[in-house]
Amino acid sequence: MLRFALRRLASLLPLLLLVSFGFFAMLRLGRGDPALDYLRLAQIPPTDAALALARAELGLDRAIPAQYLAWLAEALRGNLGESWFTRRPVLEEITHYLPATLQLAGTAMLVTIAFGVPLGLWAALHRDRWPDHLTRAIAFLGVSLPNFWLGFLFVLVFAVTLGWLPAIGRDGFASIILPALATATMSACVMLRLVRASVLGVLGEPHLRFARARGLPRRTLIGRHVMLNALLPPLTAIGLHLGELMGGAMVVESVFGWPGLGRYALLAIANRDYPVLQGFVLAMTTIFVLCNLVVDIAYAWLDPRIRLEGAA
Amino acid sequence: MKKYVIPAAAGLVALLLLAAAFAPWIAPYDPTLTELASRLQPPSAGHWLGTDHLGRDMLSRIIWGARASFGAVAMILVLVLTFGCSVGMVAGLAGGVVDAVLMRICDAFMTVPTLVLALFMIGALGTGITNVVVAIALSHWAWYARLVRGVTLSLRQRDHIAAARIAGLSRLAIARRHLLPALAGPLAVLASLDLGHWLLHVAGLSFLGLGLAPPAAEWGIMINDARPFFRSAPLLVLLPGAAILLTVLGCNLLGDALRDRLDPGMPDHLH
Amino acid sequence: MSPRSLSLLALHLHDGEHALVRDVSLTLRRGKVLGLVGTSGGGKSLTTLAILDLLPPGVRRVAGLVALDSEPVEPATLRGRMVGLVQQAPRGGFNPLVTIGRHFFETFACDGLRGAPAREKMQALLAEVGFERPGEIAPLYPSQLSGGMLQRVMLALALARDPFFLLADEPTTDLDLVVQARLLDLLETLVQRRGIGLLLVTHDLSVIARLADTVAVMDQGRIVELQSARNLFEDPAHPRAQALVAAHRALYA
């Protein structure tokens, strides 16, 4: 099992390196001259002398691979550079804003599971009857809703009209409910359909017939012989969902004034603040990749067919 | 149920496409014409859907918004298909090192959450609708390359391709005559299910102020524009959102119907 | 409390378009083996499943009764406690994510049997179906056992709640000859030792020749012949039965 985890981790490292080099190259090859952006953000007039100085300071006069290796050497020591705009260390700023975004995405993940799994089971157990039709309609609607607009709708209903929940800010449990619901809706609906399909697949499996033939009570049948098996495939999708949720959180944060990475990233995009962009996308990718690794390991651990194969 | 839903969805999408295509002739007003005297008006005979905070006609702006959205999605579609198909076919036909390198690159693109990648790309390329389109296309092409490579590989084993090769057809000719027809079905299914997704991405990125710049009429921008008036005039936010919802819903329903028709074995809705 | 016979009366099954099983009646007696033979697709498996109301979706029971000692009963209530089922292709019968031991314990739990007594009973059952070191089987997952071992475990599970009748649907298919012979020996012992009434469904007449007291021949959803096993081999009446016996002779004589 440990060997399986280490092997997966080892295969991910080169991929992460490739991705980080891709990001680096894309920023350097993207539009315009980074030195110009640097001077603009530092509010230094772009004279020829200033440009030359900036290029030397940023190492822009070297080949891109050489620049990348220099950046990587620093990054491995935990130094992602300084923001050209705020002049503060990127890592420090990211770790300042990241928890709020992770909290939102994580809560949305819980909402996704809490809605998607039981409703998917319900739909599958009543296939082609009204619960199935109802959840199908809900799912279609849910995957078609723009999350930011749904956020406004929630604010209008639950904050403005009913006054039950706060409309903006991050202050206690009540304030996360609306943003998390708005972020989670699409994932929850996709999850619902995945769980439904998966349960229907398991309901047709012969092991269920033998379990029924032994006279097992419905609770054991569904709890152990349907759900345990049916939840494995959607579990792998959880990792992918998290990617969607992190992206969705960026947008929804803007609606609710949620103080996460979204606003910070938007500022960096508008300013073309290279070190911040690089650090932002790397942080998000690393989290995403690690979560998928955890999901992979959990999957292998839960499925003895893979677990035992790894041990052999 | 299905008997009514699918024609309704098809009609809705057709209507929106027509509106997008003929926006300059259909829209009752210039979507950017500000008339401060008649600002924030409720729906009336003169302005069927009312006016916004600058007195612009909401109906005209929504019609032009359809043009912006469909235009952007069409460009994404073209980019993703050309890029995905070329990379996938080259990988599948060339094999060996080329294939391995291209697939590593695909892996790298698929390692990053799509919207995060799109945000980063916009940071690298700069804001603007063209860059939003390119960014969304760049964050999705890898899935298409994978699919095309898979189909190409499975076709390569078949006899009639081998026969064509022996007959001396060039790789390009083989690709055109045998590969493209086989790819049409799976690509149509995948793309039709992605259209709604892209529409939402375009709207979301515009809402964040990264796509078209005001005063352009685009649904995401309209919602962002209306934020300060959201409590007093919620219609300004609700109408463009409803337009997004209906468009995406129509596309998703059609995509689902298409998938049922062409490929019942595909996974359930939306990947 | 201890019934003498299990009967299926006038069973009709339909899938919405075609009649799949027409007017089938069978009676199982304790300590006796009833063979049910016929070509595949003839309705044998469906008939077996109908006894426990385990029909696949789309197949409807339009008529038919299940009775214990001529007393009509709800078929679903017979599962496990009164009637055990052994399926073909045993690998599919086990949940791949659950250990063999858990399969037993959850089955014992239906009758409130837990803890040490449950463990002892599992060991006894596994020993009864021929495992020499039953303690080593329990923590294993189904994927770690061979098809022949799984078939014996399945048999032990079917017996876990001490049923009076056993339905064995093609229990020897997919097994090699040595394992087949062993399983048939085992079934025979069970019938003698436990006094179980066994329904043995098969397309293989050599299995029938080895075990059955009475034989029902099924063809196109009907029972076309019902008589003692000895008479069937000596004097088959229906053309279908004659064909089966002839094919069997050609193979083994």
How many distinct domains of chain C?
1
Distance between the termini of chain C: 46 Å
C-alpha Rg of chain C, in Å? Answer: 18 Å
Identify the strand order in the major beta sheet of chain C. 6-7-8-3-9-10
Radius of gyration of chain A: 24 Å
The average pLDDT value of chain C, as a whole number, equals 88
Count helical runs of chain A: 14
Name of the CATH architecture of chain C: 3-Layer(aba) Sandwich
Fourth-tier CATH superfamily name of chain C: P-loop containing nucleotide triphosphate hydrolases
Largest sheet of chain A: none
| Cα distance spanning the termini of chain A | 10 Å
How many strand units of chain A? 0
User: What structural class should be given to the helix and strand makeup of chain C?
Assistant: alpha/beta
| Mass-distribution shape of chain A | flat
Which geometry of chain C do the CA atoms define? globular
Estimate percent helicity of chain C: 25-40%
Share of helix among residues of chain A? over 70%
Strand elements of chain C, count: 10
Structure description:
- The complex is a heterotrimer of chains A (312), B (271) and C (253).
- With 312 residues, chain A is mainly alpha-helical.
- Chain A contains 14 helices and no strands.
- In chain A, helix 5 (90-125) packs across helix 8 (173-203).
- Chain A is flat.
- The termini of chain A are close together.
- Mean pLDDT of chain B is 83; it is low at 266-271.
- Chain B is built from eleven helices and no strands.
- Chain B has one domain (2-24, 58-270): Orthogonal Bundle (MetI-like fold).
- In chain C, strand 4 and strand 5 form a beta hairpin.
- In chain C, helix 3 packs across helix 4.
- The longest helix of chain C has 18 residues, at 177-194.
- Classes of the chains: A mainly alpha (312), B mainly alpha (271), C alpha/beta (253).
- Chains in contact: A-B, A-C.
- At the A-B interface, helix 1, helix 6, helix 7, helix 8 and helix 11 of A face helix 4, helix 5, helix 9 and helix 11 of B.
